[in-house]
Amino acid sequence: QVQLVESGGGLVQAGGSLRLSCAASGSISSRNVRGWFRQAPGKQREFVALIGSDGATNYTDSVKGRFTISSDNAKNTWSLQMNSLKPEDTAVYYCNARKKFGFANIWGQGTQVTVSS
After folding, report:
1. Which of 78, 86, 105 shows the shortest CA–CA distance to 20?
2. Which end of the chain is more exposed for a tag (fewer CB within 10 A), N or C?
3. CA angle 44-47-53, nearest 5°?
4. Which of 31, 25, 20, 33 is nearest to 3 (CA)?
5. pLDDT by residue (tens digit) across 21-66?
Protein backbone atom coordinates (compact mmCIF):
# COMPACT_ATOMS: atom_id res chain seq x y z
CA GLN A 1 0.00 0.00 0.00
CA VAL A 2 1.44 3.34 -1.03
CA GLN A 3 1.35 6.09 1.56
CA LEU A 4 2.78 9.59 1.85
CA VAL A 5 3.41 11.22 5.22
CA GLU A 6 4.13 14.92 5.72
CA SER A 7 6.00 16.40 8.64
CA GLY A 8 7.48 19.71 9.70
CA GLY A 9 4.41 21.88 10.00
CA GLY A 10 3.82 24.19 12.91
CA LEU A 11 3.37 27.74 14.09
CA VAL A 12 5.82 30.38 12.95
CA GLN A 13 5.96 34.15 12.97
CA ALA A 14 5.82 36.14 9.77
CA GLY A 15 9.24 36.27 8.19
CA GLY A 16 10.25 32.96 9.68
CA SER A 17 11.02 29.64 8.06
CA LEU A 18 9.80 26.08 8.09
CA ARG A 19 10.91 22.97 6.28
CA LEU A 20 8.30 20.42 5.32
CA SER A 21 9.22 16.85 4.50
CA CYS A 22 7.38 14.04 2.78
CA ALA A 23 8.22 10.38 3.11
CA ALA A 24 6.73 7.73 0.87
CA SER A 25 6.24 4.09 1.68
CA GLY A 26 5.65 1.48 -0.96
CA SER A 27 6.51 1.83 -4.61
CA ILE A 28 5.94 5.22 -6.20
CA SER A 29 8.64 4.99 -8.84
CA SER A 30 6.17 5.43 -11.67
CA ARG A 31 4.89 8.62 -10.07
CA ASN A 32 8.00 10.62 -10.81
CA VAL A 33 6.62 14.11 -10.35
CA ARG A 34 6.77 15.11 -6.70
CA GLY A 35 5.13 18.15 -5.29
CA TRP A 36 3.35 20.16 -2.67
CA PHE A 37 -0.13 21.61 -2.51
CA ARG A 38 -1.92 23.58 0.15
CA GLN A 39 -5.44 24.35 1.24
CA ALA A 40 -6.27 27.45 3.24
CA PRO A 41 -9.46 27.81 5.27
CA GLY A 42 -12.40 28.42 2.99
CA LYS A 43 -10.38 27.85 -0.15
CA GLN A 44 -9.77 25.02 -2.56
CA ARG A 45 -6.56 23.08 -2.66
CA GLU A 46 -3.95 24.84 -4.76
CA PHE A 47 -0.65 23.94 -6.33
CA VAL A 48 2.49 25.19 -4.59
CA ALA A 49 5.55 23.51 -6.09
CA LEU A 50 6.74 20.48 -8.00
CA ILE A 51 9.92 18.76 -9.02
CA GLY A 52 10.22 16.34 -11.92
CA SER A 53 12.42 13.32 -12.30
CA ASP A 54 14.89 15.44 -14.25
CA GLY A 55 15.13 17.96 -11.42
CA ALA A 56 13.09 20.63 -13.15
CA THR A 57 11.03 22.67 -10.72
CA ASN A 58 7.96 24.83 -10.90
CA TYR A 59 6.31 27.10 -8.36
CA THR A 60 3.15 29.06 -8.06
CA ASP A 61 3.86 32.76 -8.44
CA SER A 62 3.05 33.66 -4.86
CA VAL A 63 5.90 31.55 -3.45
CA LYS A 64 8.61 32.12 -6.05
CA GLY A 65 11.80 33.31 -4.45
CA ARG A 66 10.67 32.18 -1.01
CA PHE A 67 10.03 28.43 -1.27
CA THR A 68 12.36 25.75 -2.58
CA ILE A 69 11.42 22.18 -3.38
CA SER A 70 13.98 19.39 -3.37
CA SER A 71 13.81 15.63 -3.77
CA ASP A 72 15.81 12.53 -3.05
CA ASN A 73 14.16 9.98 -5.30
CA ALA A 74 16.33 7.12 -4.09
CA LYS A 75 14.99 7.64 -0.57
CA ASN A 76 11.45 8.44 -1.70
CA THR A 77 11.53 11.72 0.16
CA TRP A 78 11.08 15.33 -0.81
CA SER A 79 10.99 18.61 1.02
CA LEU A 80 9.70 22.14 0.84
CA GLN A 81 11.89 24.81 2.38
CA MET A 82 9.72 27.81 3.16
CA ASN A 83 11.39 31.11 3.93
CA SER A 84 10.03 34.60 4.49
CA LEU A 85 6.69 33.15 5.47
CA LYS A 86 3.62 35.34 5.32
CA PRO A 87 0.26 35.01 7.08
CA GLU A 88 -1.29 34.24 3.70
CA ASP A 89 0.82 31.07 3.59
CA THR A 90 -1.27 29.65 6.42
CA ALA A 91 -2.79 26.41 5.18
CA VAL A 92 -2.72 22.67 5.41
CA TYR A 93 0.12 21.50 3.21
CA TYR A 94 -0.10 18.22 1.34
CA CYS A 95 2.67 16.34 -0.38
CA ASN A 96 1.87 14.74 -3.69
CA ALA A 97 3.29 12.23 -6.12
CA ARG A 98 2.02 11.71 -9.63
CA LYS A 99 2.80 10.70 -13.13
CA LYS A 100 3.56 13.25 -15.78
CA PHE A 101 0.46 15.06 -17.02
CA GLY A 102 -1.25 14.66 -13.68
CA PHE A 103 -2.22 11.02 -13.70
CA ALA A 104 -2.37 8.70 -10.68
CA ASN A 105 -2.12 11.21 -7.86
CA ILE A 106 -1.21 10.08 -4.37
CA TRP A 107 -1.69 12.43 -1.43
CA GLY A 108 -0.40 12.69 2.09
CA GLN A 109 -2.64 13.42 5.05
CA GLY A 110 -1.56 17.04 5.37
CA THR A 111 0.41 19.08 7.87
CA GLN A 112 -0.74 22.40 9.29
CA VAL A 113 1.33 25.52 8.73
CA THR A 114 0.24 28.60 10.62
CA VAL A 115 1.99 31.93 10.13
CA SER A 116 1.21 34.62 12.67
CA SER A 117 1.61 38.36 12.29
Report:
1. 78
2. N
3. 150
4. 25
5. 999 998 888 888 999 999 999 999 999 999 998 999 999 999 999 9
